[in-house]
Design goal:
Number of strands: 16
Radius of gyration: 25 Å
Structural class: alpha/beta
Largest sheet: 9 strands, mixed
Helix content: 25-40%
Shape: flat
Length: 454
């Protein structure tokens, strides 16, 4: 790893808020200035300011080239993984806390070390009490004498958040430059319990002793650099390591592509998946996380599923909602005043019958994945709209629905036209306060719903 000299560090501090492309063209060549390194650090800090605000607030962090910054975990998803580990290893009486990624917590962050949110801090205090830990810095860990290993260290963002809950934390990575970066950055973050190992994660797994927690983020690219999604095509192949992982750790957390069918992934792991976490932020699915653990009973038990989209969170026992796609038993209400669209994590989970049951809403039709109700629903995990009018696709209904409207936000679900095709047919510009949904109702009727956001 190239360490920044004084000239380069001063340049970065002076220009960190400027456009990197313009800097590359106009920056004066000063003796001692490593301009390529400086530009990488400025670009990295600018990404971290939004994606990893706690890292960005820490002086001394060295950032990798642009592509690694784009691919690394966000602060929200890294904190959520830390929450999973904290909950799994905390005493059974501990209630699952929710880690916040709010701006308020970011503003309270010191420049020397990232801080846990209030909710995560409450978990830590509960565990401290249970294990009778003192408040000294040496014992400021979630679980006394606990150990973890990250077998696919990478840039180290996930490791840095996971490690805070353990008294011993080992980062394993094959690429020497990433190990050097991690060693420098973990020290800058104050993670004295971090141990950096440069080597192959699979070989390290085979030789290491048992630990409490293992984390893996298999590389989703083949030897030609093409993107892969199937678990068996990733490196390492977690299917091949399953029994070894179960033998070496109490729990293993595996990060997988959000493109995967989670039900198939659970089935392929043959009864060893304890939890499924579908993590979205900004209503975009980012990660599929599986918690592996030893079977507790002779008969495989269905995992608990957690659907997360920022601060919208629900969880359920997948055994009770195995299909998740049932529809038809609940007729549409006569009065349809409100329309609800589930967030991305619910869509990915496919637990639409659960949503009906838990929130008192009704699916508009098979495969439409939109819900209606007569009365407003508080805390629905998604977007809510007030229905202003419902009509068909004939000219009379369309004229009544639009009523002179020249622009609208258009979305379609289970509809014969795409959103651009519907926009062209209706001759509407994009935007404005009107939200128009094209979908299929029970009875196979294609309808348009004119709504306004609530």
């Amino acid at each position: 790893m190239t360490i920044m000299n004084d000239e380069t560090r001063e340049f970065v501090a002076m220009h960190r808020n400027e456009d990197v492309r313009e800097l590359a063209l106009k920056a004066k060549r000063v003796e001692g200035l490593d301009l390529p390194l400086a530009l990488d650090q400025i670009a990295g800090w600018q990404i971290a300011r939004k994606k990893l605000p706690q890292w960005a607030s820490c002086e001394g962090i060295v950032y990798p080239p642009h592509i690694s910054m784009e691919q690394c975990s966000s602060q929200f998803t890294a904190q959520y993984k830390s929450e999973i580990a904290q909950t799994l290893l905390a005493p059974a009486a501990t209630v699952r806390a929710r880690v916040s990624d709010s701006g308020e917590s970011d503003n309270q962050t010191t420049k020397s070390e990232p801080q846990l949110s209030d909710s995560a801090e409450s978990v830590m205090q509960t565990a401290k009490s249970a294990f009778q830990l003192s408040d000294s810095p040496e014992s400021d860990t979630l679980v006394a004498r606990s150990s973890m290993v990250d077998l696919t260290g990478g840039f180290g963002v996930d490791f840095s958040y996971l490690a805070r809950g353990f008294s011993q934390a080992t980062y394993v990575e094959r690429q020497r430059h990433l190990c050097d970066l991690a060693e420098h950055n973990m020290a800058a973050l104050g993670l004295d319990q971090a141990r950096i190992v440069c080597g192959d994660g699979v070989e390290y797994l085979r030789q290491m002793g048992p630990v409490d927690f293992i984390y893996l983020d298999p590389a989703r690219r083949d030897e030609h650099g093409s993107r892969t999604y199937a678990i068996e095509d990733c490196t390492p192949n977690v299917f091949e390591l399953r029994d070894l992982l179960l033998a070496k750790s109490q729990y293993t957390l595996v990060k997988l592509s959000p493109m995967l069918d989670w039900r198939k992934a659970v089935a392929d792991f043959d009864g060893t998946v304890r939890e499924v976490h579908i993590v979205a932020t900004g209503n975009e699915c980012k990660e599929l996380l599986l918690v592996l653990g030893q079977q507790m009973h002779e008969e495989p038990s269905a995992p608990r599923v957690f659907c997360v989209n920022d601060n919208q969170r629900i969880d359920y026992d997948s055994a009770a909602y195995t299909q998740g796609l049932r529809i038809g038993g609940k007729p549409l209400p006569e009065v349809k005043n409100y329309l609800y669209e589930p967030n991305a994590s619910i869509m990915k989970a496919g637990c639409f019958d659960l949503v009906e049951e838990r929130f008192g809403v009704t699916q508009v039709g098979p495969s439409s994945h939109l819900f209606v109700s007569a009365t407003p629903v508080a805390d629905f995990p998604g977007r809510g709209f007030a229905i202003e009018a419902i009509g068909g696709m004939n000219k009379k209904d369309i004229k009544r629905l639009l009523n002179g409207t020249k622009q609208a936000n258009i979305a379609v679900r289970n509809f014969p036209l795409t959103a651009p095709q519907l926009r062209k047919k209706l001759k509407l510009a994009d935007g404005g306060p009107v939200y128009l949904f094209g979908t299929t109702m029970q009875g196979c009727d294609h309808v348009l719903l004119r709504t306004s956001k609530i």
